[in-house]
Amino acid sequence: LKVDDENLEIIKSESDLEKLVNKNIEYYAKLMEDKNLKVEVNIEPIIIFNDISMLSYAIKNIIENAFFYADDNSTIYVELNSSYFEIRNQNIDLDDDKIDELFKPFKTIDKSRNKKISGTGLGLYIISRSIHSLGFDYYMKKHDDMVEFRVFIK
Fold first, then answer.
1. How far apart are CA 63 and CA 80, in angstroms?
2. pTM of the model
3. How far lies 43's CA from each of 54, 64, 147, in Å?
4. What is the mean pLDDT of residues 41-62?
5. Nearest 5°: CA angle at 82, between 81 and 87?
6. What is the band of 115 on the pLDDT scale with cuts at 50, 70, 90?
7. d(CA 81, CA 86)
8. What is the mean pLDDT of residues 126-146?
9. pLDDT-derived band of residue 95, with 50, 70 and 90 as boundaries?
């Protein structure tokens, strides 16, 4: 996926977001077990017309980040409706004023200096470019100890 390509071709087809989100949550069942994570899901059936490949990539990575960086023994909340897809996870190590930095290439915020949980610094950058290429808006912010990532569905 090369999201900086100005000639990026979006190939639209019917996309079942409910199925896509559920499939990705199930994929991380082992990680949920290892970290003792609970997941609360509120998902409506949503069909949209967009690039399923790029959309799958973005959704998978948003869910992966939420599960991977969630604090152990916490709850992840997933919501999908006709207006937005949202995932919230507890992460006490992420400072609200550092969130914008995470969307720049090769930027990581790793207070613990534990490279086992640090990424390359490209994930959220690629997600943001993909989401914008698909014509969606998003935000990521922190409320107390919860990180919220929301993608507005058009």
1. 12
2. 0.80
3. 21, 18, 19
4. 93
5. 35
6. very low
7. 9
8. 87
9. low
